[in-house]
Write a structure and sequence with these properties.
By secondary structure, this protein is of the alpha+beta class. The chain is 36% helix and 16% strand. Strands 1, 2, 3, 4, 5 and 6 form a six-stranded antiparallel beta sheet that branches. The radius of gyration is 18 Å and the shape is globular.
Length: 261
């Protein structure tokens, strides 16, 4: 994770400064705005004077999960409207997008708030294991949230964990934005820290990352860039609502979108 990024999250059962348990919080931006703004434009401060590495588990503006109506699905993000009238814009991996219900349905996402000098961004997952793996990736030097989401989108958590643990540089380098040096750094720094994710199974997803991940690889083999394929698949998933599509159907729909004039 770069020096400008800082993950802020509450682990299960963690409390914020006021003694409240980590969970859905009311601080956040409405659709079209920032997720949350630091008070008076200042960056959030760490508790106490000592510098600490990793997530600040006691930040007063932690957003550990968001529960509400799924308002929209578009591109790499969704908007969730809570019962209190707050709308959260949340960036999600491709594998999460394909498992979301149709717009209008209620959804719960466990979330990770990443604070940067130029704004705050909220990232969402359906399972706690997905968020923990995302956090592990952010702990690697030079890996920010965009690359971490790309890894989860292209490989899925279990397959990415196996590649890291097995030091499979070729598989890691196949992810858009990750070169050989970054792949080697992932393997070097995380090989002994991802064992718990290798056997994690995601609901509705195969060990290879699910239908969307399979469709992504098929489109890449057809000559499309990872970025092009990812964008088309997200459009296909958003347009088909809660309809469950297998990899072949996703490829057909994505090809239609890619060839539109």
């Amino acid at each position: 994770m770069g020096p400008r990024d800082r993950a802020v999250s509450a682990g299960d059962g963690e409390e914020d400064r006021g003694g409240r348990r980590g969970g859905s919080q009311g601080a956040g931006g409405r659709h079209g705005g920032a997720v949350a703004a630091p008070p008076s434009g200042a960056a959030p401060r760490r508790r106490g004077g000592r510098r600490r590495r990793g997530p600040d588990l006691h930040h007063p503006r932690v957003i550990a999960s968001v529960v509400g109506r799924l308002a929209t699905k578009s591109g790499d993000r969704v908007v969730i409207e809570t019962a209190g009238g707050v709308a959260y814009e949340v960036v999600v991996p491709l594998g999460v997008m394909e498992r979301l219900p149709a717009a209008g349905e209620t959804v719960t996402l466990v979330t990770e708030l990443v604070v940067r000098e130029d704004g705050w961004s909220l990232f969402g997952f359906l399972e706690g294991a997905e968020r923990r793996f995302f956090q592990r990736l952010l702990g690697v030097s030079g890996v920010g949230p965009k690359l971490a989401i790309a890894v989860l989108s292209a490989l899925g958590g279990p397959r990415a964990a196996r590649a890291i643990k097995g030091r499979d540089i070729a598989t890691l380098s196949s992810v858009s934005g990750i070169g050989r040096k970054t792949a080697e750094r992932l393997a070097l720094e995380l090989a002994d820290k991802v064992g718990e994710f290798v056997g994690e199974s995601e609901p509705g997803a195969a060990a290879t990352g699910g239908p969307a991940a399979g469709a992504l690889r098929a489109l890449e083999q057809l000559g499309y860039s990872t970025a092009e394929a990812d964008k088309a698949l997200r459009r296909a998933l958003a347009g088909d609502g809660a309809k469950v599509l297998d990899a072949e159907a996703l490829v057909r729909r994505a090809l239609q979108l890619l060839t539109e004039r």
